[in-house]
């Protein structure tokens, strides 16, 4: 009774006892089953109300209906009124009734145009969909179904390709499969005829993709599948997906769609939109496909195909694929087994294949890629939601091809739209990254290029996480680069002005080398007073200590008195025992500049520049330079020092300006006042005031120069024990300064120099030799040891490709 009342069908495979138990269960719970709309349950516990707020009522006119549609509408309204589902209302709110036709099967609609007597053939099938008709699949239904199936793969639906006509490709995707149909348009009937069908099921990972990506996959797979027909012809693609419709024109396209758009750039096609119900591939994307495995390629069929290719004898070498991808077939390689001189179709080196297997093993066991493989192949994700999202976003840029992991990135290019310059990178495991960097940096073709150039070269082929940081660290710690390249990010050390002294309290000394004269003069000894900028210059035949000490005593100390200190570089003549004894005898302190840092002796350096510039302007014969020293000294002494004191050295020394030769003719002769004592007192007072003003001007100039200098200056923070490189300016005779390796080391700092002098004592690491001279911080830079590199860039991986039987097999 219950079965007839509710129209329930009980499976015939159940025995009598099971049928009885099921019937009793349904009878006890009869109240939960509704025979029709009259038995639908009702409740008064809750009233459904629509809160319209303050919105004005919406009134829409009813749609025009045919008599048949109106009759169907009134029928449904009467049923709902009778069962208290709706009630009559005079509400100002009104909406029209919409009737939707039952759509026909897409595949049926396509076949109806081609199959002769289509309506007669499908009669047993259409009867199954009639109202109040029991669904019983009979032999007539099966025969009709087989007839329709056969019509799909035979004329006139299926035709041979005509390469004079344009091809049409229809693609579609569902939640579990993709389908594609290659066809051609008949110019006479304007109907599309099928050339070939295609499709496949989606793997577990692909089923999780967004529908846009599934449709894009259908497009890519369809074009690749029918490549022999489409490679050299223009064709039209039909899809029901809007995103795929514009895949070749969308800007900033990334991810899988971007990569696929790049792969399809070699084809000439136009994408058109076609609704799903009119899409030829709609039904193919909803059928079940068998998994592609080794059985997909029967061995006997392959051998027959190979035998038909040539009269030569071939053997089939099969390498079983060990990956997790269910759809990856065996790797088949055809090699010639004929004479040794015969050409081979393809040779596989077992060693190369072993390396490929080992490389795949290294990838899958690399900590950086383990999660990617687990997610791509097995769908494993972390338990934490945030980490799962991060992994999904990261895996979006990876792809597994033949068991090998690849990464994709969109290279920036001004000439190409974003998304159309996709680069496929091989993912490098940690154990091979050192070899890659050695090949692109240390190798002879790497040429020890900089960080950016090396990074760009590697990025075009390979990828690993934090690759830019690793390359930067690797190059930063390369000893050859540290020795041969200049320090482009160096900063000067803060300036420490020397204290302002009284006139003749501190002399600065230096020796200038000039062309040898007929009188054998070759050197010029310069002595400059720091207080007045008074300068003396003495030609010398040698720069030996005896000659230097003699001039220093006879021409300076004997005429101007013993100074408090003398500043010079660390030349052997100034460091000699003779000069040291002279200074000790007269109680003169000696100060030396640090090696190759003449800035401390700036007074002499500026004087050197002035003399050389003046000689260059006046000399006709370079060996005549001693004859011009006296006039140059006169010019310098009578000219105000605009960069410091604002007075001439002569004025600060004698209290008045030097009389120039032209002054004798133009300036009247001055007369002394009658009161000589008063004049003398005023003269001394003015001279002292002038020197005070000059000292103040010098102090102000030093402060201004220090402010300007220290804008980019950084105080060195070296401490004893730090490793540094030393800049060496000395070039051996016969060597080119441009090709000289300027940085030497590494050195270890052993001691600090005087406070605020920024000088250091060094010990060379190669032989533990300690330098005798202090070195200024401006000649030092930090030494970056290779131990600062990541561990995987330090390991020796010479035997990486030794086959591991346990892991591989």
Automatic annotation (TrEMBL):
<dbReference type="Pfam" id="PF17919">
    <property type="entry name" value="RT_RNaseH_2"/>
</dbReference>
<dbReference type="InterPro" id="IPR050951">
    <property type="entry name" value="Retrovirus_Pol_polyprotein"/>
</dbReference>
<dbReference type="InterPro" id="IPR041588">
    <property type="entry name" value="Integrase_H2C2"/>
</dbReference>
<dbReference type="InterPro" id="IPR041577">
    <property type="entry name" value="RT_RNaseH_2"/>
</dbReference>
<dbReference type="GO" id="GO:0003824">
    <property type="term" value="F:catalytic activity"/>
</dbReference>
<feature type="domain" description="Integrase catalytic">
    <location>
        <begin position="495"/>
        <end position="657"/>
    </location>
</feature>
<dbReference type="InterPro" id="IPR001584">
    <property type="entry name" value="Integrase_cat-core"/>
</dbReference>
<keyword id="KW-0511">Multifunctional enzyme</keyword>
<dbReference type="GO" id="GO:0015074">
    <property type="term" value="P:DNA integration"/>
</dbReference>
<dbReference type="Pfam" id="PF17921">
    <property type="entry name" value="Integrase_H2C2"/>
</dbReference>
<dbReference type="Pfam" id="PF00665">
    <property type="entry name" value="rve"/>
</dbReference>
<dbReference type="InterPro" id="IPR043502">
    <property type="entry name" value="DNA/RNA_pol_sf"/>
</dbReference>
<protein>
    <recommendedName>
        <fullName>Integrase catalytic domain-containing protein</fullName>
    </recommendedName>
</protein>
<dbReference type="InterPro" id="IPR012337">
    <property type="entry name" value="RNaseH-like_sf"/>
</dbReference>
<dbReference type="InterPro" id="IPR036397">
    <property type="entry name" value="RNaseH_sf"/>
</dbReference>
<dbReference type="GO" id="GO:0003676">
    <property type="term" value="F:nucleic acid binding"/>
</dbReference>
């Amino acid at each position: 009774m219950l079965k007839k009342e509710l129209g329930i069908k009980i499976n015939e495979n159940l025995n009598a006892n099971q049928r009885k138990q099921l019937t009793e269960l349904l009878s006890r719970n009869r109240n939960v089953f509704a025979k029709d709309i009259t038995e639908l349950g009702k409740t008064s516990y809750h009233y459904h109300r629509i809160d319209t707020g303050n919105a004005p009522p919406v009134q829409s006119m009813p749609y025009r209906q045919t008599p048949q549609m109106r009759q169907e509408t009134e029928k449904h309204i009467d049923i709902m009124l009778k069962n208290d589902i709706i009630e009559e209302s005079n509400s100002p709110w009104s909406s029209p009734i919409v009737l939707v036709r039952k759509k026909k099967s897409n595949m049926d609609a396509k076949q109806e145009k081609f199959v002769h007597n289509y309506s007669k053939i499908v009669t047993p099938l259409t009867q199954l969909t009639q109202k109040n008709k029991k669904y019983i699949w009979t032999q007539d239904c099966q025969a009709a179904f087989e007839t329709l199936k056969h019509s799909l793969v035979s004329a006139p639906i299926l035709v041979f390709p005509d390469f004079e006509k344009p091809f049409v490709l229809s693609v579609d995707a569902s939640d579990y499969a993709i389908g594609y149909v290659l066809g051609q348009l008949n110019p006479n009937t304007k109907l599309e005829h099928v050339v070939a069908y295609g499709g496949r099921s989606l793997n577990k990972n692909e089923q999780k993709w967004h529908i846009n990506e599934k449709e894009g996959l259908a497009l890519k797979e369809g074009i690749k599948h029918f490549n022999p027909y489409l490679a050299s012809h223009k064709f039209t693609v039909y899809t029901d997906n809007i995103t795929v419709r514009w895949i070749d024109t969308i800007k900033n396209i990334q991810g899988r769609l971007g990569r696929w758009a790049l792969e399809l750039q070699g084809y000439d096609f136009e994408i058109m939109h076609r609704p799903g119900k009119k899409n030829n591939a709609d039904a193919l994307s909803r059928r079940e496909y068998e998994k592609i495995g080794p059985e997909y390629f029967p061995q006997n069929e392959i051998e027959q195909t190979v035998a038909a290719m040539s009269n030569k004898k071939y053997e089939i070498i099969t390498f079983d694929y060990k990956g997790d991808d269910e759809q990856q077939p065996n790797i088949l390689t055809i090699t010639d087994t004929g004479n040794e001189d015969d050409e081979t179709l393809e040779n596989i080196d077992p060693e190369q294949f072993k390396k490929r297997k080992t490389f795949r093993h290294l990838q899958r066991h690399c900590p950086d890629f383990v999660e990617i493989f687990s997610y791509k192949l097995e769908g494993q994700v972390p338990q934490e939601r945030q980490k799962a999202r991060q992994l999904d976003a990261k895996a979006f840029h990876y792809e597994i091809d033949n068991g090998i992991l690849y990464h994709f990135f969109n290279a920036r290019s001004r000439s190409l739209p974003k998304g159309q310059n996709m680069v496929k990178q091989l993912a490098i495991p940690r154990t091979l990254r050192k070899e890659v960097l050695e090949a692109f940096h240390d190798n002879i073709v790497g040429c020890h290029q900089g960080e950016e150039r090396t990074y760009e070269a590697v990025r075009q082929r390979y990828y690993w996480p934090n690759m830019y940081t690793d390359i930067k660290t690797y190059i930063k710690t390369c000893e050859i680069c540290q020795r041969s390249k200049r320090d482009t990010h160096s900063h000067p050390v803060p300036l420490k002005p020397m204290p302002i002294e009284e006139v003749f309290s501190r002399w600065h000394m230096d020796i200038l080398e000039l062309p040898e004269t007929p009188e054998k003069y070759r050197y010029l000894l310069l002595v400059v007073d720091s207080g007045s900028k008074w300068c003396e210059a003495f030609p010398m035949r040698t720069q030996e200590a005896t000659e230097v000490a003699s001039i220093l005593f006879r021409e300076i100390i004997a005429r101007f008195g013993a100074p408090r200190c003398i500043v010079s570089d660390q030349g052997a003549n100034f460091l000699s025992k003779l000069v040291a004894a002279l200074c000790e005898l007269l109680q003169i302190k000696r100060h030396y500049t640090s090696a190759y840092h003449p800035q401390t002796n700036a007074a002499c350096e500026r004087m050197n520049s002035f003399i050389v510039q003046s000689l260059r302007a006046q000399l006709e014969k370079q060996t005549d330079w001693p004859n011009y020293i006296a006039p140059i000294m006169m010019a310098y002494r009578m000219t105000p020092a605009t960069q410091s004191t604002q007075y001439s050295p002569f004025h600060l020394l004698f209290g008045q300006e030097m009389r120039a030769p032209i002054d004798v003719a133009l300036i009247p002769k001055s007369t002394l006042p009658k009161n000589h004592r008063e004049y003398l007192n005023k003269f001394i007072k003015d001279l002292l005031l002038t020197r005070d003003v000059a000292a103040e001007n010098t102090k102000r100039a030093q402060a201004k120069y220090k402010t300007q200098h220290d804008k980019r200056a950084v105080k060195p923070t070296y401490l004893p024990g730090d490793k540094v490189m030393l800049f060496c300016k000395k070039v051996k005779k016969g060597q080119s300064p441009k090709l000289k390796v300027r940085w030497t080391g590494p050195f270890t700092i052993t001691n600090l120099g005087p406070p605020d002098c920024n000088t250091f004592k060094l010990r060379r690491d190669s032989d533990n030799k300690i330098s005798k001279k202090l070195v200024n911080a401006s000649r030092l830079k930090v030494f970056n040891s290779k131990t600062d590199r990541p561990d995987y860039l330090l390991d020796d991986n010479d035997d990486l490709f030794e086959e591991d039987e346990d892991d591989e097999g």
